[in-house]
Amino acid sequence: MNLNTSRRVNKRKSYQQSIFFVRGAMAFHGKCENISMDGALISNISLFDVEVGNEILIAIPLPQKNSSIKVKSTIRWIEKNQFGIRFYKRKNPRKIYKRKITVFTDSMICSTMINNLSRGGANIQIDEKFFLKKESEIHAIIPFAKRNEELTKRSVVKWIKNGQCGIQFV
Fold it and tell me: Which stretches in the chain have pLDDT values below 70?
């Protein structure tokens, strides 16, 4: 691929950081050379076979926060010991939506806050008194101020971490 010819929408910025990525059950080490909102250029320090179209999970370090973010990506091109990735885009983008909601199961009811919302699900805050397990079914009553109405969505808990959980609408 000719790196001088660009069809990029978002400009890449130099970002020299060691990274880790996972393909299937294997973890690998590499170096991020540059990054944009859409993707990144990775130098593959771990020698292994990658193919265009492979999906990987990449951990991008955030040195100023002493943490990292994990992003699903697809390998778009390969040249020598480098490859370009495109970050996975949500099918249903999340919007910040800070509202008080009611969440209930067959045996419990709880008032809590919703953090963000998409057509496919939401991120909500959970209280430790409200015992939820991954894959449990809940119902969320979500208010819509503009329409002065509310919507009850049957949902499944997909993840729980640090006082929050992700729910998928069913």
Answer: 1-9, 45-49, 129, 145-147
